[in-house]
Amino acid sequence: MRWKTILLQDCFLLVTCLLPSLEAVPIDIDKTKVKNAQPVDSAKIEPPDTGLYYDEYLKQVIDVLETDSHFREKLQKADIEEIKSGRLSKELDLVSHHVRTKLDELKRQEVARLRMLIKAKLDSLQDIGIDHHALLKQFDHLNHLNPDKFESTDLDMLIKAATSDLEHYDKTRHEEFKKYEMMKEHERREYLKTLNEEKRKEEESKFEEMKKKHENHPKGSKDQLKEVWEETDGLDPNDFDPKTFFKLHDVNNDGFLDEQELEALFTKELEKVYDPKNEEDDMVEMEEERLRMREHVMNEVDTNKDRLVSLEEFLKATEKKEFLEPDSWETLDQQQFFTEEELKEYENLISLQENELKKKAEELQKQKEELQRQHDQLEAQKLEYHQVVQQMEQKKLQQGIPPPGPDEESKFEPYI
Questions:
Q1: What sign does the CA torsion over 8, 14, 20, 24 have?
Q2: Where would I find the beta strands (DSSP E) of 244-351?
Q3: pTM for the complete prediction?
Q4: pLDDT-derived band at 221, boundaries 50, 70, 90
Q5: What percent of the chain has pLDDT above 90?
Q6: Which pLDDT value is given to residue 80?
Q7: What are phi and psi of 81, to 5 degrees?
Q8: Where are the alpha helices (DSSP H) in 54-168?
Q9: Alpha-carbon span 256 to 250, nearest angstrom
Q10: How many CB atoms within 10 Å of residue 89?
């Protein structure tokens, strides 16, 4: 059974984890010349971490379902719509009792984890009398009405929750990167204001050189693939053949290029222009560039939108005009992520936040000064009290009266 890596973007995690990974022929072996290749244990593909707050629970559920031969067979034959619509979830009623028991235990553990998180949050807020059962409703990846049993409803909810959450992943990530870029530009402009004209021109010149450095590399075109063909595969670029290239980089030999295999190609190229040892090379931008290149290729090449590139799709893409043109892809440095108006709005927001923080800091400083004043006042009262006690003891000694014992003295000790 082939690894259906990322069958759909919105079923990304589910399908990645639901199907077992096939072992791969090592990349340094020409798989076009390998017949009946034996699996390589070290090449197993691990499911990626999605960042979902229920990621571990989801993976555990999939691992258990994988052990049921009936469910695996149904999944192997299922299409996208069966997975998304929930029809596949109905097959849960036919899995073995042993599997259902394990799923029940996983669900109880997940409910216990969520309850613990809720309690910790409420304890930190010092809230009491809250209905924990009602709060579980906010978690839509499981059926909270039945916390002890894993039912087909739970699998359906898990699929739909992952689908919905992952649909918004890319959009959220790009928005965060946009904010990151605006902050960088804001800080750069603020720094330039502190320089004289000569230094400012030098910094601007360095900035433009850095942009050109990142622009001047093959970008998702034939030239880029030919570089991989030559430098990674050790083959003559004049003998470049798309079909052979595809088979060489179909690492798990399943007849498709999945997103991980595509990203491996992009990463090799990007590492040439993004060096973590260089201060001017931003690794956050390298990651964004890599992910955008993957999205671009998938949008252009993956015609049936199953999150996999077949040999047929790949060969058709290599015939397009965009593939033959070296500048068909714009790098991050060639793209405008925000307008001047957006940057100004962002800077205004930063200014408001800074003012709020400044006010809070001033309030805290006043509270600190008040507490220090009260402390000093108490210390002064304490000192005054001890001075009075010493004077009283001196008078008693002068009058021949013995000083009080520790027990008697404590009766007169004031509470401070």
A1: positive
A2: 256-257, 309-310
A3: 0.53
A4: low
A5: 20
A6: 64
A7: -65, -35
A8: 55-66, 69-77, 80-85, 97-125, 132-135, 152-167
A9: 6
A10: 20
